[in-house]
Amino acid sequence: MQIYLDYSATTPTRPEAIATMQTVLTQQWGNPSSLHEWGQRAATVLEQARIQVAGLINAPAESIIFTSGGTEADNLAIMGVARSYRTPQHIIISSVEHSAVSEPARLLELWGWQVTRLPVDTKGRVNPTDLEKALQPNTVLVSIIYGQSEVGTLQPIEELGKIAHSHGVLFQTDAVQVAGRLPIDVQQLPVDMLSLSSHKIYGIQGAGALYVRPGVELAPLLCGGGQEIKLRSGTQAVPVIAGFGVAAELAAQELGTETPRLIKLRDRLFSHLADVPHLIPTGDRLHRLPHHVSFSVIGESEKVTGKTLVRQMNLAGIAISAGSACHSGKLSPSPILLAMGYSDAVALGGIRFTLGRDTEEADVDWAAMVLKQVLERLMPVSKNSFQPERVLSLEF
Question: How far is CA 393 from CA 273, 323, 352, 389, in A?
Fold first, then answer.
């Protein structure tokens, strides 16, 4: 029995997206910049996909810039703003950003920019008051992730965006984990830029998009033929983008039924694992992605980390993921859990279950049972071996 519970990493491409891509590859394969019939067929496909992706977030079609994925979309937003200035300015991000945001910010620091990283509470949430205090006269951009991929916490994007706008500062959010799982309306949400990814919503890997509010000026990262209103030069990957469009349209249609179904499964899994020794839940239970369940393993056995559990679950045919990373043979604690106030030991133990279209109750039940068995085998509980109050006193 094999069970895939890593939908935040990537989703299986839905058949409708594959079928669309195959049609484009065989019948509409022209260069969309060409003026002849073959090029115009491809251009029509491209613009149809732009309308479909825009519809997922209620945006005007012309505000959608296609990229190679969420990482490029984030980079285009941050570096596109930065490259618009002749001298270094100030930007604000959170301390729990995806590396697609935190790494460009680090690079800007090397170039003389000032970067403020807002702290988060023990559940991973930014306090809007901290943003208010961090704004400076030379602040030009605030970038706060919408839904944190490792611990599932949703940020108060509407409040944060309003604060940024009240000071005349641009606001960007990485909504890669939120799009297709929760409703997004950029006509109501105070965001100037918003990043999306195809393969997180059952589209094909290799496509993403950046929503850019009309009137916002960015400098391009790629120079060339001037595609995507001169913001992303290079011939567009039309077949992949076409699949992205279909996936976005279907995701929008299914939100009303799929989101509550995922929430029910998510809560069922949390319930199964609530009282398991050596496991503590992470992230915010109330403000949370609908498909996301996360824990950290704690106890006296330092050899049992999140990576250990991922390997053990994989041997049982179940795919989950861990937040810690391995660099040069040495395991590093999750920077997200560290930012939330956890110790190095606890930050090594993060695991994540993320659910999707193919997940059923039986999958959740089986995964919980297997994880319990793995923990019982690796970390047997004795009377004095497990005292969670010694580790931390966080409420979930």
Answer: 18, 21, 21, 6
* Helix pair angle (37-56, 238-273), 10° resolution: 20
Q: How far is CA 112 from the centre of its chain?
A: 28
User: In the structure, what pLDDT confidence band is assigned to residue 324 with cuts at 50, 70 and 90?
Assistant: low
* Paired tokens of 102: 């935190």
Q: Is 272 a residue whose pLDDT tops 90?
A: yes
Closest to 192 (Cα-Cα) out of 161, 167, 220, 219 = 161
Query: pLDDT value at position 1?
Result: 80
Torsion of CA 99, 337, 265, 356, to 10 degrees: 20
E-strand ranges in 16-70 read: 64-67
The tens digit of pLDDT for each residue in 101-115 reads 999 999 999 999 999
Could you tell me the sign of the dihedral formed by the alpha carbons of 295, 301, 305, 310, in that order?
negative
- Please report, rounded to a whole number, the percentage of residues in the chain having pLDDT higher than 90: 90
C-alpha closest to that of 111 among 78, 143, 135: 78
Closest alpha carbon to 268 in 151, 364, 370: 364
Distance CA 284, CA 152 (A): 7
* Under 8 Å between Cβ of 142 and 193: no
In eight-state DSSP terms, residue 354 is: E
Fill in the amino acid letter for 34: S
- In whole angstroms, what is the distance from residue 204 CA to residue 227 CA? 21
Annotated catalytic residue, options 229, 326, 362, 369: 326
Tokens of 2: 């094999």
Q: Cα–Cα distance between 35 and 169 in angstroms, integer?
A: 40
> Is 326 among the residues known to form the active site?
yes
pLDDT score, position 318: 98
CA dist 174 and 148 (Å) reads 9
Could you tell me the CA-to-CA distances from 139 to 131, 175, 286, 338, 389 in Å, in that order? 11, 22, 31, 26, 41
> 388 pLDDT exceeds 60?
no
The secondary structure element, H or E, covering residue 133 is helix 128-134
Q: What is the token pair recorded at 260?
A: 């509550």
Helices (H), 340-387: 344-347, 361-378
